[in-house]
Structures are given as structure tokens and as C-alpha cells.
Design a protein that fits this description.
The chain is mainly alpha-helical and 300 residues long. Helix content is 75%, strand content 2%. It has a two-stranded antiparallel ribbon with strand order 1-2. The radius of gyration is 20 Å and the shape is globular. The chain starts with a strand and ends with a strand.
Length: 300
């Protein structure tokens, strides 16, 4: 006997997808909300030592919770595979910042919104839907206006582009492995990889004479922008493609701009237009309804 698939299953799938979208969006907001904290902290610490301390604190906080949760085969390999490009991204971003302005760095780093669909297509031999590309194009143009970037082609830009590639690879790897492993344990491994990997370079990029304010900022960002944000992102990517996760993460620069505006940093008119374009790009990809698929008859 033939019957249509259960509509309640579709409703449950829709709710799960919405929760995944909200999780990644929440991670982006948390990342962006720490912008001023990190900016202030770097006056009392080198960027690489700050990254090492922040991620080691985060790994130490999350470890007791993570190790009480059930392990899965291959989780360490998956965590290292996701953590290494994340580490490379942070180190390359720091090296690039010595040669380019922060606005250029922000613009090139967030070009991952365009890089991720290409990497995903190469990995899975399947191109994202047209509306994902349209959303990426809108978000990319918005980022250009939001950051006011005027990038040229030099060593600093090349290093920062490598950073964007590292962060993009992290998203692509997570899209492949996140559904197979516990998100808390997978996040803890990633945090440890970044913290340990940045530890030695930190001695050559300013050393570990962090000020009290920098240590407090490292603790704050470890909890907010590492433990909470990365757990949300990893959990959300269990059910979202890398391309859609990249678009949702574009809420980070928008949040940073809004935080700056709330604390007295003026928002230029073109930057406001850019923020609107980023939000429009996310809406095109995520908020607009998908073309309806016909319910296929299922055999009982």
C-alpha cells in the first residue's frame, strides 16, 4: 500500500534545522561581541601568546565536562583534522596583521564566505544551490563596505588569505565530521590543538608577560568566544552545510560593528549599507523558503 511520508517528520526536521541555524548564528554573535575586549587586551599581550593562553584556558575549562561524555571512534583524528586549519588560520592572521591594517585583515579573513562553497564543491563534487552563491555574493560585497577595506596584493594580504583558507577548511572539515562525534568532546580537542600549537610560537611573538587586564580578557574570551561559541558552532554544523555555516558566521563582523556603535565608535553610512547587505545575504540563503519538494510515496 502506498502512502505519503509523515508530515510530522518534516516538521521535526525543520525545527532541528532552525535550532542548528540559531546555534551557528549565536556563535557568530558571541565571536563578534568580544571584538573590543580582544582589541583592548592586545595592548597588554602579544597576539600569539594571547591566542595560546585563551585556548589553553578554554580547553582546561571544557575538558572535565567533555571527558564525562561518551567517546566515539575516530574523534581524536576528527578533532585534530578540524583543529589544525583553525590553528593555521589564527597564526597566519596574526602574521598578516603585522603588514596590513585591521580593516583589510577583517575583509580578507571573512572572504571565507566565498571560499567555503568552492572547497565544499571540490570535496563533495556538488555545487551549492544558486541562492547560497547569491547570499555569498551579497555578503562579500557587504563585507567590503562594512570594513572599508582597500586591499592590494602583497605579503600581508597573502598571509591573511591563507588565514581565510584555514578557517574555511575548518568549516568544511566540521561539516564532514561533526555529525559523527559528540560536539563537546570534538570542541575540546580543537581548542587543545590551537592552544598547544600556538604555545611555542608565542615565545617568539611577544612572550608570556601578559598584563592583568590581558589575562582577564583571555579568561573572558576563553569562556564566551571559545567554549560557548565553538560548542554552538560545532553542534550547529552537525546539520548544516559548510557554505550555510559560513554565511551565518558573517553575523560576526556585523555584531562587532554594532558593539562598536553602542560604545561610541561611529558607523559610516557605507558601513551601515554593508551591514545591511550582509544580513540580506544571510536572508537570501537561509530565511527564504526552499522550493517545495514533492512528497514521494513510500511503500509500507
Amino acid at each position: 500500500m502506498l502512502q505519503c511520508t509523515d508530515r510530522s517528520a518534516h516538521a521535526g526536521e525543520g525545527r532541528t534545522r532552525l535550532c542548528s541555524q540559531l546555534a551557528v548564528a549565536g556563535a557568530a554573535v558571541l565571536f563578534g561581541s568580544t571584538f573590543l575586549v580582544v582589541k583592548g587586551a592586545l595592548s597588554g599581550a602579544g597576539p600569539v601568546p594571547f591566542v595560546a593562553v585563551r585556548f589553553l584556558i578554554a580547553a582546561a575549562i571544557l575538558a572535565p565536562v567533555a571527558w564525562r561524555r561518551p567517546a566515539t571512534p575516530g574523534e581524536w583524528g576528527a578533532g585534530v583534522a578540524a583543529g589544525v586549519p583553525l590553528l593555521a588560520g589564527y597564526l597566519l592572521q596574526t602574521a598578516g596583521l603585522r603588514l596590513v591594517t585591521s580593516s583589510v585583515s577583517a575583509f580578507i579573513t571573512d572572504l571565507l564566505v566565498v571560499i567555503v562553497p568552492v572547497l565544499s564543491a571540490m570535496a563533495w563534487k556538488r555545487w551549492p544551490r544558486a541562492r547560497v552563491w547569491a547570499g555569498a555574493a551579497l555578503a562579500g560585497g557587504g563585507l567590503y563596505l562594512l570594513t572599508g577595506a582597500r586591499p592590494t596584493l602583497g605579503l600581508g594580504e597573502a598571509l591573511t588569505l591563507g588565514c581565510a583558507l584555514g578557517f574555511a577548511l575548518n568549516l568544511v572539515v566540521l561539516a564532514r565530521v561533526a555529525s559523527r562525534h559528540d560536539p563537546v568532546r570534538l570542541t575540546a580537542i580543537q581548542l587543545a590543538v590551537v592552544g598547544v600549537g600556538a604555545l611555542v610560537p608565542g615565545f617568539f611573538y611577544g612572550g608570556y608577560g601578559l598584563s592583568g587586564g590581558a589575562l582577564l580578557a583571555a579568561l573572558y574570551t576563553a569562556v564566551v568566544a571559545s567554549v560557548l561559541a565553538f560548542v554552538l558552532q560545532t553542534w550547529g554544523q552537525r546539520r548544516l552545510s559548510a557554505s550555510r555555516a559560513a554565511l551565518l558566521l558573517m553575523l560576526e563582523p556585523v555584531t562587532a560593528a554594532m558593539v562598536g556603535l553602542a560604545t561610541g565608535v561611529p558607523l559610516r553610512p557605507l558601513a551601515a549599507v554593508g551591514a545591511g547587505l550582509v544580513l540580506a545575504g544571510i536572508a537570501v540563503s537561509e530565511a527564504l523558503p526552499s522550493p517545495r519538494r514533492r512528497l514521494r510515496p513510500a511503500r509500507r
